[in-house]
Amino acid sequence: MCETRCVERHDSLLRFKELYLPVTNTLRELEQHHNLETSKLAFQLSKTITSSSFVISLYIIEKIFAITLPLCKSLQQINVDLSECCQYVNNCVKVINSIHENSEEEFHKLFLDVENVLSLVDETVKMPRLIRQSTYRNNIPADSPEQYYRRSIFLPFLDYFKSQLIERFIKHNYIISGLQNLIPSFLIKLKPSSNEFKKCIDFYKSFLPTYETFESELKVWVEKWKSVPDNELPKSAIDTLGVMSKDFYPNIWCLLSILATLPVSTSSAERSFSTLRRLKTYLRNSCSEDRLTGLALLSVHRGIQIDIEEIINTFSRMPRKVDFVL
């Protein structure tokens, strides 16, 4: 269901929400199954997905994750614009703050949808029993189920979601922007000064071979790309590394190398491991490394068009015990 563990998880939530009623009705039919194990498992699953806390959580997650869905898609691109992603995160945080300020109105709309869905499966929104002292669950005082779930699930989830966005993106915005501005297409457009790189350089100071010469090196780097047409400027860190000299620009080469490896910490690298887990089954355990690599590349890069005739011609030219007859 979750090949890359980001966008597909959101799609899985959407699909489950769309199929919620058929799934619930199917589980209730399976409760009457003659097999005891099947009926018992179906009963457990049915009670779980029809509980008030489950359905409300499902609708909350689907609503909030929709805000960051474009961000997840952008972070999985090859030439990802990290500074633009950080700017988008700032906008997401503002939207979440707005939802938090109008939490009563926002949650009321969501709560009405949950009540409507539960009524279709002969259930109602129920509030847990409150006691004086609780250790294992929320014991939030409330006058109604809507107020209880808004205080116990909706508001805490908004706070946690916003804190994670700030921790993972906004706090590192100045570092990412400084690194990306070294790419010629951004460098010429923004014409940054060495002062704009100060925080970024100080953060990676221990990795730079000659920290003291960075300001002079940056001036030469800017002059290098002034005479290059805009359509020929490198637009990514990897492209820039391929056309620059490490000997002339050691500090910039080091910083661009760091920038080129930053997307590896997101979901791009996980795609190969997820693919390998699906491909290398016990039936393919004896296939060669070249074939396994080829299958993995085909699975990862599904958008690339493949010429079947060229594959057949290549396969027919390979040495075989039996002649390949076309």
Automatic annotation (TrEMBL):
It holds the Pfam family Dimer_Tnp_hAT. Residues 246-302 form the HAT C-terminal dimerisation domain. InterPro entries: HATC_C_dom, IFN-induced_PKR_regulator. Transmembrane segments: none annotated. One of its GO terms (molecular function) is protein dimerization activity. This is HAT C-terminal dimerisation domain-containing protein. It comes from Macrosiphum euphorbiae (potato aphid).
